[in-house]
Amino acid sequence: MATDHDTALLGEAVSLAVGPAGAVSATDWTASKLVAQVAGQLDPKTPRFVACAPGRLDIMGGIIEYTGGLVLNTTVADHVCAAAQRISKPVLRLSLPNDTGAFVNHEFAFEKVCAGLLTNEFKSLLSECIQSEPMSCELRCCLGAVQSLFTKAADHSRGLHVSIGSKIRDLPAIAPESATIAAIMVAVAKALDVTIQWQQAADLAREIGNNWLQTSLPNPDVLCTLTGEAHTITQFRCGSAGLGSAIPLPDHFVFAGIDSGFHHPKAKEKECSVRTATMMGRVLIERIIEYEGAGSLPWNGHLSRVSINDYVDRFRDRLPTKLRGRDFLSRFGQLSDPYCTINEAEVYKVRSRCEHHVYENARAHQFVDGLSRAIRLSDRDTLISVGELMYSSHWSYGQRCGLGSVQTDLLVNLLRRRGLENDIYGAKVTARGCGGTVVVLLRSTDKAREALKEVVKIYQKKANLPARIVAGSSHGAIVSSAQSI
Prior knowledge:
Largest sheet: 9 strands, mixed
Distance between the termini: 19 Å
Strand content: 15-25%
Shape: globular
Helix content: 40-55%
CATH topology of the domain at 24-57 and 78-232 and 477-484: Ribosomal Protein S5, domain 2
Number of helices: 17
Oligomer: single chain
């Protein structure tokens, strides 16, 4: 089901990447080695509820989710697994993997935990219990999910044991945090006999990200790991409309990922700077519209929804290519976006950052139209055009946003050289960029399998880095639901 991560077994991994057989159903994952390991931490004599949430590949859109654009995701087979059960001892017991993969138990007395849960003082009370414990991502996600769901349970007299395992812990580009929270929430809700709808789960996941991980979890990531369906593309129209219709993929089209083995050490700082410059440009465009009158511009405050024609005709030449933070602050003050803080001394590249959002949203819509037509008509020329949109998106990440990397550029160039004659149609960096994973559009053929293996081997030699194929597809945690084992 999941990708084999040993480079020596790349042939098997790639075979999973190129066909619907790589999809993982709710019944398939219950038999996986990871599920056995995670459930094995709990008492087999008491009901155990297991949920799995997949990682996701960002096909188009990526960072434009925070400017109201269209984001396209698909799930992968590799996943996070969570198991939960009620226990008679009044404690919160967590079995979590350490850096070596071994499970370590953390236990908190429920006289403190329950009091904190029910009075919203959980974090301050828990901080007393975990001063000597490292606050891993899994630990934070568990505490946040239990806090969110325990108050909704009818029975507060018994304790709770939760165990977590992950195949995507070291793949930041495929949303491991969102998948971790999704798996935990679905398993814990089942153990507590709490009913939770997908929209409520998504809202709680974002709250946990904000409060416990101190990061913004993009809505498309959260919803894909919760509600994505195997071997489909999930459309998320950010800003208002929410989930769009899913696009089922035919047997002969597939998306695979290649993790570059590189993630820029200052990725978060670079991403924050890009977001800040983008939102500065949004403010400037808003002021221009206020001064001149909105006319027929249907943007509703969302930068990505400005059409390319309107952007070029009305705004492009009036946006500064560079703007120092102090100059913006002196006229407009700090931004309202809670994830942006303008640095007075920093010089922001406003125009190019804004351009990426405008053009990427247009590309995402063109991608949906083109892929749907290629699927419906089996039109190879249209599929070629769809792949070109991916290459254009990759270029824009690097040149307009400065979020590229030598490593992902190398992967994309190697894939493009093999190109159409090897049934490879497009490739681009995923998610926030700065290294991470490249997503590939290919056909399910032997030529594509061999080309993908060859690219990985050449990349490993040239970059002196491991490369990992992210393959297959599976249902989101709510779609597959928690299973009793």
